[in-house]
Amino acid sequence: MTKNMYKAFLIKYGEIGIKGKNRFLFEDMLVKQINYALKPVDGEFHVRREQGRIYAEVLSEDYDYDETIEALSRVFGVVGFCPVVLVEDEGFDKLAEDVIAYLDHAYEDKHLTFKVNARRARKNYPMDSMEINAAMGEKILDAFPEMSVDVHHPDVVVSIEIRNQINIYSEEIPGPGGMPVGSNGKAMLLLSGGIDSPVAGYMIAKRGVTIEATYFHAPPYTSERAKQKVVDLAKIVARYSGPIKLNVVNFTDIQLYIYEQCPHEELTIIMRRYMMKIAEHFANESKCLGLVTGESIGQVASQTMQSLAVTNEVCELPVYRPLIGMDKQEIVDISEKIETYETSIQPFEDCCTIFVAKHPVTKPSLKVIKRSETKLAEKIDELMKEAIDSVEVIWAEAE
Ligand code: ATP
Ligand code: MG
Questions:
Q1: Quick check: helix, strand or coil at residue 207?
Q2: By three-state DSSP, how is residue 184 classified?
Q3: In the predicted model, what is the mean pLDDT of the chain?
Q4: What pTM, to 2 d.p., does this model score?
Q5: Whose CA is nearest to atom 4 of ligand 1?
């Protein structure tokens, strides 16, 4: 036996708050997301439900165990998963041999305490669970004298479940928790090439929300590589969230127009308001229930409480800011964990950095900003329409 002795993974998921109809939705979405996560993995899998359980079963002779573990570790809603050995029912003595072979390979060092936890899901098995516990405990002690029984705080719980096939497992690998993507509606992420917004997308997806994204670029002031970086970030986030529909909006003319007409220290905040408006347009088109940004209070001038209030004012949809109370280092830590960091720090300018003023307003007043925006009356509607009509849609899929 090797690591590939595991022919199935038993998926454990949180059940709090998922009664009745919601439970089916939750499980459906979970199965769908597990399938999606396993798609790029070397091997063939079948994800199935059985008696209130979800199994990812291995169909192929061979498969990549480490990749499988990595993939399952990314599926929101998964609390933990157990690699399972499946054996046919060929009598208790044969089962004991299989359990002993399993333990021999799973644990190099046998100085462990254990208990057997049998479950007879198939009632025609000739021994009940208490009898299996006792008899199997003895067989294990005979085979491995270094091991000893501890029913209260064992190092290893040897689970033996008598089903059509018999399941043997003892290890649980932690999953990310959260809720399966698709179980909590859809939201529109404003995705830039920075560190924060991919993390914000990850965190919203963790709560079961499907994400779509909008990116604003300003060619030729921003390069093709800056755009590619955002696509690459979306692909990484898609490992967790499932495929992301990315709307790439050409923002150049709007940005230049604001630059011509409005005070430069108000540029960022006015630009941000138009970004929100356009993102909200796409959000409504795709039936999103909210917008998501990577803002955090006080991080930069455009993220003071006053600035956030002024930006917020243009939107009718709620704006979710999952990073609102986090320090930069905490955000960086998550971006490293989810592997967006290295891509985020590539040095390609994003469209906001090009026109930034030396001294942007930090306490904008809504009245003043609105007055400045009246100077855009002549052309802004037309420019917004053009930007919306010329959107480029890119589907970002995990690679
Ligand atoms: P990030 O690291 O996410 O870029 P940041 O610290 O650079 O954030 P800002 O540039 O002030 O912060 O942007 C605040 C938020 O506005 C971003 O988190 C993102 O949600 C949105 N945003 C900024 N620029 C763009 C853009 N070019 N396209 C889409 N969304 C953007
Ligand atoms: Mg940014």
A1: strand
A2: coil
A3: 93
A4: 0.91
A5: 194
